């Protein structure tokens, strides 16, 4: 398979129907990393048709649960076999560090194993007490059908696994469209699915742009479920098209996530060090290109000056460079577009009265930062307020804004003052306070004295405009199922409702 044969339909790798291709760029130096097929509507229709045939006529939906789980475990083993290769692909394609790429592969492996275990541990259905010994009533779960899966550019392999693993565990077929910016690890994942023995037509891949591929998947009449992870604007537009066709819809649309630090979290040297370290982790992992990034630091006024001074000092020492280089802690932004978007947010924040404490510029080229790469220095913006665009919108860059509060109620009000509601954190040395504040935060995930960890067995998703539905956990599997009630009359007899 040449790289340009990145479209996989009905068990066959192929080029785009019209011969179109796209260059995938290395964000560290803007050189061509690969050339992939640029699919269009014809390719999308062919992929959906293959998935439809595989669901309606193929064996996968009726494959015993144990066999489906075994295949998922084989995929997990193959992911670990190729761990270094995939981590390198992910690092070069997205710009993240090689170690982050390794962590991603391990997390993807865990997702496949979790959903394999989940379906194996289920019973044959939920028996419903109908109030009569003459009735057997049971609620069972069946696959939805053909699933359209749209994944983002920041965590292409991880987000693919959150959709592919439960979709397959439930017995569905699918068409997946990775971001056109970072498609390479998804191509590798589909290769592993084939190697693991997945029947032809169950897994279909179309590389291409959101328009036309993503939009066509959203509106296609033969798609039963549309699952999208990405930006708010494109996600709501595609979701509306899917809803218009009465499809099941799951949307994860990002976040603007608060990291609330109380003074009592900093009462000891160890507590202070931990809170500062976690604030850096929250904001600057993967150059801030994380939907759950803690880009909003909301710190108690009494410790603000000391906290921000130490934060700035450490942010200035973050080692920025090509993700595959030894010792690099933070890679480039994913594209020129994202770099310019980040610069625009900084400019608007400064115009609106923010104080630049560090960063705010493209760093000079060096031995680990090639000229032409999309690098931007970790940036801290102080004295920010809720009217600023940088506070209201998801920035997806290495930008940390600082707000302050004096009371617990004020902290909660600031943290909840967002149209998003994906994730947030509270740092406090007072357990009762931390849990009390966590209970009041309107976010789908809340961390206490930590930031960023997730568990495949715990649901992930947001409130407000952060999306609809959940991934991971039992509810993540339920997204890919239909629920059916089977009512069996064990002693059938005439009803005699009508006299005749």
From TrEMBL:
Pathway given in the UniProt record: Amine and polyamine biosynthesis; betaine biosynthesis via choline pathway; betaine from betaine aldehyde: step 1/1
Residue span, Aldehyde dehydrogenase domain: 13-486
Top-level taxon of origin: Bacteria
Pfam family, one: Aldedh
Catalytic residues as annotated in Swiss-Prot or TrEMBL: 252
Signal sequence interval, chain numbering: none
Keywords noted in UniProt: NAD, Oxidoreductase
PROSITE patterns: ALDEHYDE_DEHYDR_CYS, ALDEHYDE_DEHYDR_GLU
Stated family: Belongs to the aldehyde dehydrogenase family.
Protein name (database record): Aldehyde dehydrogenase family protein
Provenance organism: Streptomyces tubbatahanensis
Phylogenetic placement of the source organism: Bacteria, Bacillati, Actinomycetota, Actinomycetes, Kitasatosporales
